[in-house]
Design goal:
18% helix, 7-stranded mixed sheet, 14 strands, alpha/beta
């Protein structure tokens, strides 16, 4: 199998590349250069509608400039891109699609609960090549073996103990920290201690600097 290059951008945004195909997951407003991140992509995958996961302006502009660019997202987001409806594909748990040689399946239903007073919204996770899993903002356990888990490690809904239990349930071979823009350097260090190989999970947690890549 061809190796996949994963590039980490701000917060939950990652770019995956393989055999000339390239797509971006969750380019949000915390990425100042969202337009640049999107520019070389064949497709944009969005887990849910929160602005830290979708830079509406940058995505809309890219759709207008490139009619071949495709967006995959929960159906509830169709209105956001209604001006480019032909480029929007609604996805839900159980769906499968391809981007180049990438095979992608969709998992999960709802965003994690932040507080009972905040309505729950749709959230999907994407499993790439039956190997790499991006859960969006939910600790949903896919019915699949996961090699690399992109683990949300901060956020208003996230709790460290729940993160550890989530990793134990998914049982990946390794993890990459995402959704981590709220963390200080100390917070990242503590997360690494609690959630990493020497902590509660026994599984290596890689913390990638913004803009850096790794091969998975």
């Amino acid at each position: 199998a061809s190796t996949v290059k994963l590039t980490k951008h701000e917060h939950a945004c990652v770019v995956l590349e393989k055999d000339g195909a390239r797509f971006v997951i969750d380019p949000g407003v915390f990425s100042q250069n969202a337009a640049d991140i999107i520019s070389g992509a064949d497709a944009i995958l969005i887990t849910h509608e929160h602005a830290d996961h979708v830079h509406e302006g940058a995505v809309t502009e890219a759709l207008g400039a490139r009619p071949e660019l495709a967006v995959y997202a929960p159906a509830s987001m169709a209105g956001l891109f209604s001006a480019h409806a032909g480029q929007f594909t609604p996805v839900a748990a159980g769906d499968e699609f391809t981007i180049g040689d990438f095979a992608i399946s969709v998992h999960g239903f709802d965003h994690a609960v932040i507080h009972p007073d905040i309505p729950t919204i749709a959230n999907v996770g994407y499993l790439i090549d039956a190997s790499v899993y991006h859960p969006g903002d939910a600790y949903f356990v896919p019915e699949a073996s996961v090699t690399t888990l992109l683990l949300p490690t901060s956020g208003p809904w996230m709790k460290l103990g729940e993160a550890a239990d989530y990793v134990r349930a998914v049982r990946p071979q390794h993890m990459v920290s995402i959704h981590d823009l709220l963390l200080s350097d100390t917070g990242k260090m503590i997360n690494g201690q609690f959630l990493g190989e020497q902590g509660l999970t026994g599984i290596p947690l890689t913390q990638v600097e913004i803009g850096d890549s790794l091969t998975i």
